[in-house]
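Escalation from tier 1.

The customer reports that the assembly of two entities below gives different structure tokens on two consecutive runs. Tier 1 could not reproduce it. I'm attaching the input and our single run for tier 2 to review.
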Amino acid sequence: MTTAQRLPDPYGSGGGANLADILERVLDKGIVIAGDIRINLLDIELLTIKLRLIVASVDKAKEMGIDWWETDPQLSSRAGRDELARENAELRAHVAELEGSRAAVSAGEREPAQEEARE
Amino acid sequence: MSGLRYVYAVCRPFGTPLPAQLTGVAGVPPKQLAHGELVAVVGQVPEEDFAEEPLRAHLEDLDWLGATARAHQNVIDALTVVTSPLPLRLATVFLDDSGVRTMLQEREETFVRTLDRLEGRVEWGVKVYAEPPETAGRPEGSGGADARPAPAAGTAGSGRDYLRRRRNQRKESEERWQRAERFASRLHASLSGYAEDTRMHAPQNSALSGASGRNILNAAYLVPRTGSEAFVELVDRTKDDEPGLRVELTGPWAAYSFSGEDT
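Tier 1 run:
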């Protein structure tokens, strides 16, 4: 026990450590070795922990850096809105372009329009 | 012996016996399985809980997961007292002892290299929380009453007052975050001076941790055992430097955050 004497008393580790501290290390850190029983902990993590957190609190999940759903239009109304905003901007640019060329046409002679009609 | 083998950690052989009353996952005392220069710390676990299908189902159960994680950590903690273990991730399970031996054999070189790197070191966790402004500011009793805007008898200035108040609130909160950020990076810099290596983890979710305030720094430090006292003292000294911020220290942990090969 010589090594133990050099260590200060535990702070929060063991009984006092909160579940998040323990899960953070036991589940997310530590060396990964494929045993005979094959379980993809990453799947488990995504399914239970992360989804539970999202259900519990979206803001908190975001603080944890779990934000993959934000950019998925199927899961996020914001991602949907972003998508719509982008589409809107594109359409507006297109409309402006068309209006611009129409204005140029009506400002000049009628010829191009007639030409167009003839074609 | 029937049942599966749950592996907690890989260590160098250590002379000190583990506490007799120590139990791990499934309530079973861990034992040492020596192979070559290495020791695997293993526990026998029942197939009906740790075969692939039941294990998968169990891991979906947050209560079971929490209890198992605590049991796992319980063994790692006991090991950390007597040696510098290489902790394995939760639920590393083999069919029998020979499977564990084969694993030790195949990875011997990597294990030895990592164990040499971690020898005599422990991990400390340091988190900084920003307390919500209600509790960080004035005492709760007076704060509640003052926070409500006084009915300003419909004067012409009330709209402007409202905007000014909003602007001040925004400015205060911005300043608070800047202060918190400055404090966290200063603390991290000075703690890094005592550490051989550091890792930044994602901030923790208070729904899971039950801690109050917003977690703004969640870092791990690899510190020699001999330097641990100085490290802890430094954290203690810095603790109360900034009102509204809380510093939380956990450890000594096994070097979970530094067990990867890429470090």
